[in-house]
Q: What sequence folds into this?
């Protein structure tokens, strides 16, 4: 590895151990100069690097890395970016609902459940980010907790909807499940889509 640049600052290559890209990234995250920030972008030999499968970076040997450039951000910045992009994620979930609902009502349980599980997985990732954001919002809001309180209430309400959906799935009550998706889940996601920009404004 000939050069290593983090947030525009060149680092001493020999200070960062690692036989492959993953080990190098782990070493960097533990380096005092990074100071607990998170990796937001990786550029390998001048090209953006995206890990398509978990731990693919293990296959990128140190000898093959000529130049490595990283961009990092704080948890606060990461959460703000999430809040700014969040409505797009939520819109994608909303757009996925009609296909799931139609398949359940038509009795195509296999097709419906496949789409439903993909939907739940995407929703779970979104909820995880919201949970992290909730804690960071506490730091942003100071004494003004109105937006953080709204997010807490939202998380509680969507958990109730998810529990209902899981119970209906276990009971094979596909028609009622479709109704909950079409009305309660869609309404809940639209509420979230409206809430995220307000949280972002509070965060700045």
A:
């Amino acid at each position: 590895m000939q050069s290593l640049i983090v947030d525009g600052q060149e680092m001493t290559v020999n200070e960062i151990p690692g036989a492959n890209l993953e080990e190098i990234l782990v070493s960097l995250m533990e380096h005092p100069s990074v100071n607990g920030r998170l990796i937001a972008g990786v550029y390998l030999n001048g090209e953006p690097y995206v890990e398509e499968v978990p731990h693919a970076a293990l296959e990128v040997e140190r000898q093959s890395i000529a130049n490595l450039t990283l961009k990092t951000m704080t948890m606060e910045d990461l959460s703000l970016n999430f809040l700014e992009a969040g409505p797009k994620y939520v819109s994608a979930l909303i757009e996925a609902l009609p296909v799931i609902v139609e398949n359940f009502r038509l009795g195509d349980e296999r097709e419906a459940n496949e789409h439903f599980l993909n939907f739940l997985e995407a929703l779970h990732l979104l909820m995880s980010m919201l949970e992290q954001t909730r804690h960071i919002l506490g730091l942003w809001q100071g004494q003004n907790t109105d937006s953080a309180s709204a997010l807490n209430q939202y998380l509680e309400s969507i958990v109730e909807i998810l529990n209902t959906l899981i119970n209906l799935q276990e009971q094979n009550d596909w028609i009622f499940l479709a109704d909950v998706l079409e009305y309660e889940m869609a309404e809940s996601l639209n509420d979230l889509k409206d809430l995220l920009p307000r949280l972002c404004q509070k965060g700045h």
